[in-house]
Amino acid sequence: MTWTWRGRDDGSDPAAQRWHQVIKPWDAIAHARGRRHPMVVIGYPTDAGVRANFGRGGAVEGPLALRAACANLPAPTTHALFDAGDVSGGGDDVETWQRALSAAVAAVRAGGGIPVILGGGHDQAFGHWLGTVHAASEGSIVGCINFDSHIDMRPLLGGRAHSGTPYSQVQQWCAAHHRPFKYLLLGMQQTHNTPALIQSASAGGGQLVDADAFHPGQEASLLQLIDRFIATVDHVCLSVDLDVFSAAVAPGVSAPSPMGIIPDATFRTIIRRIASSGKIAGIEIAECAPCLDVGGRTARLGAAVIDTIVRSLPLVP
Ligand SMILES: [Mn+2]
């Protein structure tokens, strides 16, 4: 389905404009030069990976709902906004979707943009990361920071990817190419991951931070841990799976989290710290399923998270 950007209009004063008034179609060739810090929306309209993972479908409509929720956000004063459209063509084949996203991300990176991926099942995280690696200079280290209640390092099912495998795929790619695997998970719920999975992910190089760490008393040590992780990588692919949040604020996901984190001041401090690192190569919002949502609150939360990140991105000269 095609989306036409539209929304509230308070006039053409730059300080009064919203996303829908300033966002332009992305053309990497035309925009590669002369545009400062472009942010480029890419839709990942599939829940094939969610269904292959025995989850509740609906994320296929996520990009549409997230675009609608972003339309009325205040236009950033520091970044030009573009929309590269949706990737397509995968049918039920998750790896085909991942390859299509990887190509789209690499093209945006080559054009000097920061992709803003709107999902879609969390299998998108592998395409996001792989496209970033392909566009990055040889030998640079691309790390993953993932807000998620699930580790998403489960084994492939019959050799096939699904929404629970993106970071297993990153790990396997790194092992096959003799590259360091850099993965930081924030907001894990013990309830949603087996002890075997927690053990194997930790042993395999994943750094897992429990949702209980999102507490004002632990904020300083969590910020330190994040700073230390970021210092070990050249680029960060930042992913926010909306099921990291409590089902009360994010009901519109395949696998809601009754005891998930809330988007309070501690969460905002954490995500601003990551965004301000200067190493963000791409941003993604995963698992937005509008048909499971309540009054659009999950899509609005996804848009608010994007807005919070974009406001904290430093201006790279
Ligand atoms: Mn996930």
Going by CATH, the homologous superfamily would be Ureohydrolase domain
Distance between the termini: 37 Å
The largest β sheet comes out as: 9 strands, parallel
The strand line-up of the biggest sheet is: 1-3-2-4-9-8-5-6-7
Q: Return the average pLDDT rounded to an integer.
A: 95
N-to-C SSE string, H for helix and E for strand? HEHEHHEHEHEHEHEHEHEH
CATH class: Alpha Beta
CATH fold descriptor: Arginase, Chain A
Rg over CA atoms, rounded to whole Å, is 18 Å
Q: What helical percentage do the residues reach?
A: 25-40%
Overall number of structural domains: 1
The shape is: globular
Small-molecule binders here are: manganese (II) ion
Q: How does this structure look, described?
A:
- The protein has 11 helices and 9 strands.
- Helix 4 (62-70) packs across helix 11 (297-312), helix 5 (94-110) packs parallel to helix 6 and helix 6 packs parallel to helix 7.
- Helix content is 35%, strand content 16%.
- The termini are far apart.
- Strand 6, helix 8 and strand 7 (206-210) form a beta-alpha-beta unit.
- The protein has a 9-stranded parallel sheet with strand order 1-3-2-4-9-8-5-6-7, sandwiched between helices.
- It has helices spanning 19-22, 28-31, 48-52, 62-70, 94-110, 124-135, 166-176, 195-203, 219-231, 265-275, 297-312; strands at residues 24-25, 39-44, 81-86, 114-119, 142-147, 183-188, 206-210, 235-241, 280-286.
- The protein has one domain (14-312): Ureohydrolase domain (Arginase, Chain A).
- It is α/β, with parallel strands linked by helices.
- It is globular, with a radius of gyration of 18 Å.
- Manganese (II) ion (MN) is lined by residues 122, 148, 150, 152, 241, 286.
